[in-house]
Amino acid sequence: MSYQSYLKSTATFTNKNPSPGSIHRKPPPSITPSGSSIRSSVTRNDTPTSTVPVPFTPASSTSSPARPAAFTPLPSMVSSAAHQDSTRTPLTKEQIDAAVRICLDLQKTATSLHDKRPFAALLLGSDNSTILLSHYSISHVQHAETELARLAAIHFSQKYLASCTLVSTWEPCAMCTGTIYWSNIGRLVYAASEEKLKDLTGGNNEENMTMSLPCREVLKHGQKDVEVIGPISGWEETVVEESGKWWKEQQARENAGRLRGGSVNGTDKPGSLSSMRHGTPTTWTGEETVLSSIDDEGEYKAELDIDWMR
């Protein structure tokens, strides 16, 4: 269904904070999902009737698969998307806007102060408003969503993460999507699509070898339901415009034969918070006795507050 239809279908839900439930498994083969949606969906995968796996045919290397034409969802499809895992509270438009706005601000900090790639992600708690963790891209293999999901799996139980939402400025790549799946985060929200990212990065870009493999395609081959919302109209254009500034600057550097200072994974700029004590991005785990952070080299650090023991 469309992003707007999703908001309408969830308008009747109350914003109560449910307690974490069990890991939500996909329906048995006898239950046939009503179909996938364009902008918002709960990715499902029935057990195949044949033992021979159907090979996935990748899209053209020049562009991502074209999206299906818009259509009016059937009532059964609306109920399928609205009837989420009982541990997840439906998101409102205001909650989505607030989360994406914060995520984009984090991305701006990453590019302007740390010369990182324009990607950022955060994790919302089960109340859809508390930010449990946040992260930006560290390197070409330590993506924002992957590192965030990895830390989430360390700090929180699978049962609790099933009620949480990962919000990202960009659609997660196959690696990030897989990490989200294995961490058991129950919902994914992204502002801009992988297709738009590939338009920005182009081909053979060492900074980001963008794939043509949508996150929904990855998730539909799994055994658990993961709700996916995105791209988000309005925010997609904003994210593309903001990210485009960094990619244009990077292209100008390459054309001039200048490499980024430090390494391909970023460096400090004058006035960077990295030179200041406690200047690295702070990760709050929700535990009063632990303060964890990620330094510029991607090292994870945790400091115990032992004052409470005295």
Automatic annotation (TrEMBL):
Residues 1-20, 77-89, 272-284 have a biased composition (Polar residues). CDD domains: nucleoside_deaminase. GO terms for biological process: purine nucleoside catabolic process. Pfam families: dCMP_cyt_deam_1. Residues 94-207 form the CMP/dCMP-type deaminase domain. InterPro entries: CMP_dCMP_dom, Cytidine_deaminase-like. PANTHER family: CMP_DCMP-TYPE DEAMINASE DOMAIN-CONTAINING PROTEIN (PTHR11079:SF161), CYTOSINE DEAMINASE FAMILY MEMBER (PTHR11079). This is CMP/dCMP deaminase. It comes from Cladophialophora carrionii.
